[in-house]
Amino acid sequence: MLANPSFHGRPLQLVPTVCNELSSAYALPLQLHSRSYQSLASSTLGNRTKRRRRSISRRFTQFSIRASEEPQHVSFLAADGAGVQSSPFSIRIPVGDRHLTVETGLIGRQASGAVTVRDGETVIYTTVCLSDVPSEPSDFFPLSVHYQERFSAAGRTSGGFFKREGRTKDHEVLICRLIDRPLRPTMLKGFYHETQVLSWVLSYDGLHPPDALAVTAAGIAMALSEVPNSEVIAGVRIGLIGDKFIVNPTVQEMENSKLDLLLAGTKNAILMIEGYCDFLPEDKLLEAVEVGQDAVQGICKEVEALVQKCGKPKMFDAIRLPPKELYKLVEEIAGSELVEVLQIKNKIPRRKALSSLEEYVISILSEKGYISTMEAFGSTKTMPDLLEEDEDEEVVVDGEVDVHIKPVAARKTVPLLFSEVDVKLVFKEVTSKFLRKRIVERGKRSDGRNPQEIRSIDACCGLLPRAHGSALFTRGETQSLAVVTLGDKQMAQKIDNLVDEDEYKRFYLQYSFPPSCVGEVGRVGAPSRREIGHGMLAERALEPILPPEDDFPYTVRVESTITESNGSSSMASVCGGCLALQDAGVPVKCSIAGIAMGMVLDTKEFGGDGTPLILSDILGSEDASGDMDFKVAGNDVGITAFQMDIKVGGITLPIMKQALLQAKDGRKHILAEMSKCSPPPSRKLSKYAPLIHIMKVKPEKINLIIGSGGKKVKSIIEETGVEAIETQDDGVVKITAKDLSSLEKSKAIISNLTMVPTVGDIYRNCEIKSIAPYGVFVEIVPGREGLCHISELSANWLAKAEDAFKVGDRLDVKLIEINDKGQLRLSRRALLPDAETEKQSIKPRSGSLSNDNVVSLKTRDKGKPKKVATVSKDGSASESEEPLKEKTVLIEVSSPAKEAAKRLVSPEKDGSDKLQPKQKSGSNISSKNGEAKVV
Q1: CB contact at 8 A, 737 and 690
Q2: Which conformational region is residue 672 in: left (phi greater than 0), alpha (psi within -120 to 50 degrees), or beta?
Q3: Pairwise CA distance, residues 889 & 847, whole Å
Q4: CA distances from 691 to 506, 507, 588 (A)
Q5: Minimum mean pLDDT range among 203-207, 309-313, 401-405, 445-449
Q6: Helices 211-224 & 170-183 angle (0-180, nearest 10)
């Protein structure tokens, strides 16, 4: 029948859909008005005697009718068939504390549906288009979604060599999935026209995130298009600041939020949720979902009013479903065998048995002549030629149109025929029906478990000897090999985003799903959208248990390779990743686990009481045949990550509450099994992991470490053999090394560069670096030089410095002055035997000081204790002091301790008897009230 028999003068386009007997795939485009339609029919069929009156729509049941232009609110010029749209139409929808502006009819008027949605100064443009010719029937709706963030939206261009946007970035892929997942449940079965959703960020203000806005824009564009979806969808983000839930919070508000929930649904039910939180209880999560559902309902009601005014007619007549007779035939042929096959516990044997049974059904139907070899959709019957004239023609009168047709009664009927594609689709639906019926009626699943039971769990750590941390987690037929790698900031993942700021991730999880994990042959290459999505879910689930960067300054990478898969491989990645982190010595806050929940909604159909049946730890077949896939990660206290997809029209809050409580019990069981891991996690750094040491110096000393153009820091790396030296503007220095010896060398050099000399300090065995007419330059510690004036070189008069000294000579000097520019003035004469300062006796030091502290000594009288630093030929420095005789010495740690200058302290008489300070890898240095503290 016609999609809309009342044309209202609008031009219509006729394209062929499913024909019973016609196998041609070409289109027969006709642009017809009601009067031009009358002329065509009259001229073609002539003026014959009218025998019977029928509806004109019967003649064209093999065509689907699509409106070529906008519906009734659009004006058309009929003279040349070109349509001219009216002015754009826009509405404002209240959401949270502000409004969304929705506009259609201005941009993208040739698309089936096009809309711009604005929140603040963030603008999303989304289009929906569909192909004119249907594709081959499939159990997977032919929908593709593409989302792109234009750098021009934020007034930027790409930083790469190519200045145009290229490959889709990971976070764009994640938003594509957020758009795709709520759209699919609303698509009606039997519609095979390929549909494409394109979404662009045209403007971004840095304040209003575009992802939730893109979900809403896609739902509105789909509702305005000709695609026959069931209901309008919308999406919102929910944040939790303090005890208050915020709808569509800003970027700044999300920085203080304990929850990041993105929810999409219709005005009646929830279709998709995804979010991350910091051990949020189940009841709080349900409150957030309720707030989000109320917001979605308000948006959907406003959009429905917009669709009534601007929407295009839906192509319901293009839907082609397999005939009901085919379902009965398949059940009769394979019913008893299906019951036995679905009881096979292992996945691969069950899959092969189902495939063999499907081929058996096709062969039986072919032998009986029920399967047609023609490439047509649906059932096939003999159809008359529409334009063939015959003596027994009938004339049907419909208004002013005369059409001649052949009498149907005179035609012989042909047995019903089915396409092979239809048989495969029906066989899959029948299999799903039998699986669901078995679970509801018998309370047993394919592997023999009851609905609440968890599969057997096995785990082991330390599987890979050279990896920094590794774990193999097995749950039933799902297995994840998780590997942890530790590194410095250079290993961090850089994120290229719209805002003009460099963003680095110090923790990331990469998930891979090779075809071998399901026993198949397939493509191996760049990660798929599914792999990126599952990896991000596991990553965000593990992130809350990581220690802060100040306590553990490593970049952490987790790789999860799925080696076996039969349901919830992303949740296996959470469990395996947690164990691998512990095996790598990462001080995680606690252990967490993940579980996937399923559901059979229509239980009355299979003999149940109508209550939805929730399944714990679902298999792959239960995911495909069931109505829900709800993944929940966390511990026995709260939730860290969740993701829910629905295959039906949506679920309600009571069902979600039941699923969350059942998931909590499942997590407790899994955590108990993880604690039995054998061998257990080592919980200490691997000997192959890099060493990272943190030092704190004065911020103004950072340039001394970097040097001109980075020359100094590069020379330190080359000289000591460390992997990297990272400096920060606040004075924090991070040294990454493979071994302790190179780490200590670099620490000593940096300490000497940033040390704060004190007038009166003595430096022994120092090398002369250069000679000038007015004195010599002496290196008191590596990288620090001072001038010893010619008058301070000797007790006697010297005409020229080179008369007594040459470059490379070593001598003892004393620091006697530091000028305003920080330049050091040294004296050798002050240390000669006839000098007054040398008459003081030397008293041993009372205790050793930490190598990370700079110590200043203050006396209550005139004199000051002398610090003695000895520099050996290899460049290492040692230090001792010459305290005053009969003076009270007050030793206190002053604020320069934050510079972490390393000095090796030794007695003055014997420079070889050095006191090696204790080293602590990765120690932090902090200060409070001017005192140094090694943490």
Answers
A1: yes
A2: alpha
A3: 13
A4: 16, 18, 18
A5: 401-405
A6: 40
Q: What single DSSP character describes residue 112?
A: S
The CA–CA distances, whole Å, from 127 to 112, 173, 200, 214 equal 7, 17, 9, 11
Element of type H or E holding 76: strand 75-76
Look at strands 593-600 and 855-859 and give their pairing: unpaired
Report strand pairing: 507-512 vs 555-564: parallel
Give one word for 289, left, alpha or beta, with left for phi > 0 and alpha for psi -120 to 50: alpha
CA distances from 926 to 107, 252, 751, 853, 896 (A): 58, 30, 16, 11, 11
Burial class (CB in 10 A: 0-12, 13-18, 19+), 373: exposed
Average pLDDT over every residue of 91-104: 93
pLDDT band at 168 (very low <50, low <70, confident <90, very high): confident
Residue of 622, 600, 655 lying closest to 476 (CA atoms): 622
The token pair at 366 is: 């072919």
Tell me the pLDDT tens digit for each residue of 388-400. Answer: 334 344 444 443 3
Cβ contact 114:99 at 8 Å: no
- 725-735 residue pLDDT tens: 988 888 889 99
Half-sphere exposure of 893 (CA within 13 A, CB side): 21
Report phi then psi at 575, rounded to 5.
-65, -50
Alpha-carbon torsion (607, 610, 616, 620), positive or negative: positive
pLDDT at position 384, please? Answer: 38
Burial 45-73 (b: 16+ CB within 10 A, else e): beeeeeeeeeebeebbebbbbbbebbbee
Task: With residue 341 as reference, give the H or E element that holds it.
Answer: helix 324-341
Which of 460, 462, 935 lies closest to 686, judged by CA?
A: 462
Chain-centre distance for alpha carbon 915: 51
